[in-house]
Amino acid sequence: MPTVRQLEYFLAVAELRHFGRAAQSCNISQPTLSHQLRALEDRLGTTLIDRASQGIELTPVGREIAERARRVLREIRDIRAVAARARKQPSGIVRLGITPTLGPYLLPALIGALNAEQSDLRFYIREGIPAEQARDLVSGRIDLMVGPGPVIGEDLEVLPLFDEPMSVVASQSHHLAGHSHIDRSDLAGERFLTMDPRHHYHQQVQRACAELGAEMLLDYEGTSLDSIHQMVGSGVGLAILPELYLRSEVGGDALVVRLPVTNWQCSRSIVAAWRAKSASADDYHTLAERIRDEAGKLLA
């Protein structure tokens, strides 16, 4: 039978499509990786990787076995978590997926608080597109994800955490800056910056522009909230920025001013999600509640 290590090595190659990077991610040498993959194929009596192609491609049976191997390794992690809980010990590393429009502005305070309470708990943090991270959650690549709702996936448990206000911001030299009251109609025709269309943030800005009769600047998509902040500060356009970003030391509002729109509001709903059948589901629920509590303090 294949060993757990061999399945882990095979999945690393299947996901990274590069022998060198796969070996590095598994903390082994490339010759060791290649040897173990050959041994796995010998044990199974079939070829899993098409080595004759230009890049690394899985054979048809290799793709099917990769899907089954993901499920096997997910179950093995759950078995380990059950055993750890039975020993009343922390399960160690939580693989946390979070959107880059939230993580840098929420996690520092959260991780600092958790380190003081549970010093043995560690986080492997992966930032990414929420829709892609939902798929990673279902497949077992991450344990818990936090981001804008809705989160959709098979056998997921979703817990609403908080609603985060968002504000329209402009450069200090913008013609609306300094006004004590701004009607939503004043924003008609204004140009708003956004991010890559795969981000939930892009979709939210798109809806806001439709409501306000404004325009999205698709030629100047930011790669992060910081790049949007800087472009707004330089006068390229307006933006809608989340409250945690505006309050954070990492982000902030040094280059921009908030526009007090009196008859229009914007917010985003932040949720946590995990696999409902995970052996650590109760732990993830508790951790999600802790995230909700810490966010509440930051937004108070």
From TrEMBL:
Phylogenetic placement of the source organism: Bacteria, Pseudomonadati, Pseudomonadota, Alphaproteobacteria, Sphingomonadales
Coiled-coil intervals, chain numbering: none
Keyword Lipoprotein: no
Family, per entry: Belongs to the LysR transcriptional regulatory family.
Cross-referenced InterPro entries: LysR_HTH_N, LysR_subst-bd, WH-like_DNA-bd_sf, WH_DNA-bd_sf
Gene3D superfamilies hit by this protein: Periplasmic binding protein-like II, Winged helix-like DNA-binding domain superfamily/Winged helix DNA-binding domain
Positions of the HTH lysR-type domain: 2-59
Entry keyword annotation includes Transcription: yes
Keywords: Activator, DNA-binding, Transcription, Transcription regulation
Superkingdom: Bacteria
Record CDD domains: PBP2_OxyR (cd08411)
Protein name: LysR family transcriptional regulator
A Pfam family this chain is assigned to: LysR_substrate
